[in-house]
C-alpha cells in the first residue's frame, strides 16, 4: 500500500465521526450514497464469483480423483485458496459497513487482515502437499484419464472466464476487487495448464506432463502466498504504510504550513490496506493559531499522502 498513490475505498476514513474527540478536519465530509451502492455491487459480484469458484472446486476435486490428474487436484487446491480469498473479500465488504463500537473503536477491518494472514499460511501448506505429490508422480508415473481431465479443465476455464467477466464489471478501483480479479486470473492460468496437460496426454500418452504442470500451478500459489502473508503481516505488526517516510512527511509539512516550526514523533500504521492512520507532534511559533495549524496539517496529510485520520498534538515553540 503506497501512501502517495492509494486509491482504495475510503468509506471508513473520510467524513466519519470516529467518536475519539479528535478533529478529522480537512474538509472531507461527503455523502455516502455512492459508496453504499459500490459496497452492495461489490458484495454481490464477490458473492457470485465465490459461489462459482467453490462449486467448481468440488467438481474439480472429483474429476481429479477420477482421472488421476495431479494438475487438476493442484488447480483445485489453488481454487480452494481463491474461494477462501473471495469469501474473505466478500465478508470484508459486508463487515466493514458495520460501525465502530466502544470495544472496537476502529471497526472491523482488521478481521479481514487476520483472515488473509491465516489464508496465506494455508497456501504454503497446500503448496508443500502439491510439491511432495508431484515428486512421487514423477518418480512413479501413474495413469491419467486424459479425456476426463480435459473435460473438467475446459469447464473450469469457462467458470473462470465467467468469474473474471463478473468481477471486471465492478468497482475496479477497490483494492478488494482488484485482489479478487488477480486471484481469478491465476485460476485461469491453472485451467489452461490442466488443458495443456490433458491434450499432451491424449496425443502422446506422456503422463509426466501432469505433475510437471502441477508444479507450475504450485509456483502460482507460492507467489500468492508470499504476497498475502507479507502484506497482512506488515499491517498486523503495525508497520508504517508502504511508501510512508516519516522524515519526508515532517519536512513536507514544515515547508508547506506557515507558522509550523517542526514536526516530531511522527508515527503511522494501517488498520487495513485502505485505512492508514498517523499521529504527530507539531511545534508552532508564538502567536500561531493552533486550531488553524491543526486543520492545515490534517488537510495536507489527506491531500498529499492520502492519510485521512490523523491525531495532531500542538506545542508552542
TrEMBL record:
<feature type="transmembrane region" description="Helical">
    <location>
        <begin position="48"/>
        <end position="73"/>
    </location>
</feature>
<keyword id="KW-0472">Membrane</keyword>
<feature type="transmembrane region" description="Helical">
    <location>
        <begin position="212"/>
        <end position="229"/>
    </location>
</feature>
<dbReference type="InterPro" id="IPR050681">
    <property type="entry name" value="CDF/SLC30A"/>
</dbReference>
<dbReference type="InterPro" id="IPR058533">
    <property type="entry name" value="Cation_efflux_TM"/>
</dbReference>
<dbReference type="GO" id="GO:0005385">
    <property type="term" value="F:zinc ion transmembrane transporter activity"/>
</dbReference>
<dbReference type="InterPro" id="IPR027469">
    <property type="entry name" value="Cation_efflux_TMD_sf"/>
</dbReference>
<feature type="region of interest" description="Disordered">
    <location>
        <begin position="1"/>
        <end position="39"/>
    </location>
</feature>
<feature type="transmembrane region" description="Helical">
    <location>
        <begin position="108"/>
        <end position="132"/>
    </location>
</feature>
<keyword id="KW-0812">Transmembrane</keyword>
<feature type="compositionally biased region" description="Basic and acidic residues">
    <location>
        <begin position="1"/>
        <end position="21"/>
    </location>
</feature>
<feature type="transmembrane region" description="Helical">
    <location>
        <begin position="144"/>
        <end position="167"/>
    </location>
</feature>
<keyword id="KW-1133">Transmembrane helix</keyword>
<keyword id="KW-0862">Zinc</keyword>
<dbReference type="GO" id="GO:0005886">
    <property type="term" value="C:plasma membrane"/>
</dbReference>
<protein>
    <submittedName>
        <fullName>Cation transporter</fullName>
    </submittedName>
</protein>
<feature type="transmembrane region" description="Helical">
    <location>
        <begin position="79"/>
        <end position="96"/>
    </location>
</feature>
<keyword id="KW-0406">Ion transport</keyword>
<keyword id="KW-0864">Zinc transport</keyword>
<feature type="compositionally biased region" description="Basic residues">
    <location>
        <begin position="29"/>
        <end position="39"/>
    </location>
</feature>
<feature type="transmembrane region" description="Helical">
    <location>
        <begin position="179"/>
        <end position="206"/>
    </location>
</feature>
<dbReference type="InterPro" id="IPR002524">
    <property type="entry name" value="Cation_efflux"/>
</dbReference>
<feature type="domain" description="Cation efflux protein transmembrane">
    <location>
        <begin position="48"/>
        <end position="237"/>
    </location>
</feature>
<keyword id="KW-0813">Transport</keyword>
<dbReference type="Pfam" id="PF01545">
    <property type="entry name" value="Cation_efflux"/>
</dbReference>
